[in-house]
Amino acid sequence: MKETEFMSLEQAIHNRWATDGTLSALLPAGRLFTGRAEGELELPYAVLERQETKPSLRTSSGTTIDEVQLRITIWSVDLDTAQSVAAAVEQRFDGADFTLFAAVRLMRRTNRREQIDADGRWRVELDFRAIEEHG
Question: From start to end of 11-121, where are the E strands?
């Protein structure tokens, strides 16, 4: 599917991840899960979650603009790998402009957190704000 065809923001992120050589070399797109990643998964992997969608504006022409909060969480056994993947994600998606059929989406990174969990896995969370315009 091309980005110019109608797709969700999540599909567009997967598509761009898969076609970015640097990012795919660090973490293949097949290791990017949407919503939840369940079971005993091999590390590293990433999870893309839509946290919230808030209607922001409705115009008299029928256009709506929504604010979307997204989170990409990278899980790894070591901090260096998680940080490398996070840096590549930021490079590819911070300021990304997704022009799609009937929608324009712009992403900006709003926050980044790093922590080690009780089980020894590193987690890097990248929060993004996206603007969706629907005509």
Answer: 32-34, 45-58, 64-76, 97-100, 103-116
